[in-house]
From TrEMBL:
Family annotation (InterPro entries): Allrgn_V5/Tpx1_CS (IPR018244), CAP_dom (IPR014044), CAP_sf (IPR035940), CRISP-related (IPR001283), V5_allergen-like (IPR002413)
Protein name, entry field: SCP domain-containing protein
Organism whose genome encodes this protein: Rhodnius prolixus
SMART domains on file: SCP
Domain named SCP: residues: 60-220
Length: 289
């Protein structure tokens, strides 16, 4: 997990262009990095895959991973994590098909590392990865979240680093806490994951990759605001009915990118120049709360 120095780009998109059709090779990354979908433009498993079993999620798995993330965020919002302060502005996550599409394209290469660039037109994208030989994808999400046990409370108010020193066997060693802080990042409200399974003798290896938008782990920024759950919700959100304590996005014609279907890789979006500028400006605002 890397700390991401947040930057924001404003795009002008011609009418009729879609998220799926936008050229990933031109607009999403810095000059020194290549977007995953640009690097691997064709679907299919990579040359590093061994005895590839499957690499696609079903709806039940998507729902399970999404609910797992929101349930963990809800624990923070309701003050049920004793080692960490209660959060007042954590937003309920919704599934994002484009993030799943990008995560799957990278996971299908069977390279266990963070890809160089996975950004969307809408925002910079963060990522958690893990693999297991015996546990479920949901249990690995819990594994990421359990880093709250080693995360100093001071990082909640101001994200300065993701590697922290912990005492192990009498020695001080560095450990990563960035998986937890990404899951707990208040304004990361979009989630898309990929799971692949390979047969690595004598067992099955499951690799999970989850992409988050907008990205968390931004330097010198709070992970979330401290306070009673749902007491300081960002503009455009309201207290969640499904996950009390979280802030749920309000789906409307003015802000359709908060609606469940927005971001679907199979949906065409009639962007206009004004429309994309509106999205960009709002993304800046919500990141500042």
């Amino acid at each position: 997990m890397r700390i991401i120095q947040y930057y924001f780009l404003l795009y002008l998109v011609v009418p009729g262009e879609s998220v799926r059709d936008t050229e990933y090779c031109c607009t999403y990354c810095s000059r020194r990095r290549t977007h995953t979908v640009c690097k691997y433009p064709k679907a299919g498993i990579g040359k590093d895959c061994v005895r590839f079993i499957r690499g696609s999620l079903i709806d039940k798995e998507r729902t399970s991973l999404l609910n797992m993330h929101n349930s963990l965020r809800q624990l923070i919002a309701q003050g049920k994590i004793k080692q960490q302060p209660q959060g007042s502005n954590l937003v309920e996550m919704i599934w994002d098909d484009e993030l799943e599409f990008i995560a799957k394209r990278w996971n299908d290469q069977c390279i266990y590392a963070h890809d160089d660039c996975r950004n969307s037109l809408r925002f910079v994208v963060g990522q958690n990865i893990a693999y297991t030989f015996s546990k479920t994808a949901e249990s690995m999400t819990q594994f990421w979240f359990d880093e709250y046990l080693i995360t100093p409370q001071s990082l909640i108010n101001n994200m300065t680093e993701i590697e922290v020193f912990v005492k192990l066997s009498g020695e001080m060693k560095k450990r990563d806490s960035g998986h937890f802080t990404q899951i707990a990042w208040a304004n990361s409200y979009r989630l898309g994951c990929s799971v692949n399974v390979q047969f690595v003798i004598p067992d099955f290896k499951t690799t999970i990759m989850c992409d988050y938008g907008p990205a968390g782990n931004i330097l010198n920024t709070p992970v979330y605001k401290i306070g009673k759950g749902c007491s300081d919700c960002p503009v455009g959100t309201e207290c969640s009915k499904r996950f009390p304590g979280l802030c749920a996005m309000k789906c409307s014609k003015l802000y359709p990118f908060f609606c469940e279907g927005y971001g679907s890789a199979s949906t065409i979006f009639p962007f206009s120049k004004f429309y994309v500028i509106t999205v960009s400006l709002f993304a800046s605002l919500i990141h500042s709360f």
